[in-house]
Amino acid sequence: MSNRLRGRWVLITGASSGFGAAAARAFGAEGARLLLGARRVDRLERVAAEARAAGAAEAHVHAVDVTSTASVESFFVWARGLLRTGTAEAAPLHVLVNNAGGALGLDPVAQGRDEDWETMLQTNVLGLLRVTRAALPLMLGNPGGLILNVGSVAGHEAYEGGAAYCAAKAGERQITRVLRLELCGTGLRVCSLDPGMAETEFSLVRFKGDAERARKVYEGMQPLTAEDVAEAMVWIASRPPHVCVDELVIKPTDQASVHKVHRRTH
Ligand code: NDP
Ligand code: 8X3
C-alpha cells in the first residue's frame, strides 16, 4: 500500500458501527488522522481506540446527528478546531466519507410510514448535503482531496418495499454526479461507493431491532463484511490525485442482483 494517507485528515460520518467503524480502523492502519462522528459517542470512543491501536496518527470523536443542521454545524466547529483553520499550522481535510445513513422498514408504499420515509431522506440525502456543505471550505484549495459518498445497489435497482430507500440512494448517486461537475477544476475527487448486501447493523436497524428477521436476510449466502467495504474505501482514497473513481459497485459473489441471491440450503 502507498503511504498517500499517512498523516492525512479523514472525516467519517456514521463511524460508530458497520462500514464507518471498519473505515476508521482501515484508514487508521494507513496512519491517517481521524475525525469520527455519529450519535452514539460511547461506540465512537471504542472505535477510536481500535483505530489508534491499528496505527491512526490521531483519532477524535464528536457527536453528530446529520438530520440536524445545527448539530452538523457544531460538529464542524469542533472539527475546524482540530484542523486549526486560520492558523499557521492549518491542515486541510483530505477525505470526507459520507457514510451515515441506512434504511427503516421494508413496507410497500401502500403501508409506508411517514416517519420512516422522512428519516431515510433526512439521513441519506439531506444529511449528506449538510455535511458536504460544511466540509467543503475545509477541502477546497487542496487538490487530491476526496469526497467519498456511500450509496447502494438500491440506487441502481428497485425492489419491493424499498421505495424511500431506493429513492434516497438514487438521490445520493445524483448528488455525487452533481458534485463531480461542480468541483471539476478544483482538483477534488468525488466518488459514489455502492455496496450490495453487507452484514452490519443495517438490517437490525431496518427491522427495528428484530434480530431474527435481520439474520434471515443473509441466510445461506455469504454477504460482504464491513471490512470488505472499508478496504475499497482505502483503495479509492489512495489512488494518485489525478485518478478519480467516479462510481464503484461492490457486491457479494452470491448476489448477482437485488432479486437474484444464491443461497445454500444445507
Ligand atoms: P450500520 O447501521 O452498521 O451503520 C450506520 C451508521 O450510520 C451508524 O454509525 C449510525 O450511527 C450512523 N447514523 C445513522 N443515522 C445517523 C444520524 N442521523 N446521524 C449520524 N449518524 C447516523 O449500517 P452500515 O454500516 O451497513 O451502513 C453505512 C452506510 O452504508 C449507510 O449509508 C447504508 O445505507 C449504506 N449501505 C449499507 C449496505 C448494507 O448492506 N449494510 C449496503 C449498501 C449501502 P449512530 O446510530 O450512532 O448515529
Ligand atoms: C443496502 C443493500 O439491497 O438492502 O443498501 O438495499 S439493500
Automatic annotation (TrEMBL):
<keyword id="KW-0560">Oxidoreductase</keyword>
<comment type="similarity">
    <text>Belongs to the short-chain dehydrogenases/reductases (SDR) family.</text>
</comment>
<dbReference type="InterPro" id="IPR036291">
    <property type="entry name" value="NAD(P)-bd_dom_sf"/>
</dbReference>
<dbReference type="GO" id="GO:0016616">
    <property type="term" value="F:oxidoreductase activity, acting on the CH-OH group of donors, NAD or NADP as acceptor"/>
</dbReference>
<dbReference type="Pfam" id="PF00106">
    <property type="entry name" value="adh_short"/>
</dbReference>
<protein>
    <submittedName>
        <fullName>SDR family NAD(P)-dependent oxidoreductase</fullName>
    </submittedName>
</protein>
<dbReference type="InterPro" id="IPR002347">
    <property type="entry name" value="SDR_fam"/>
</dbReference>
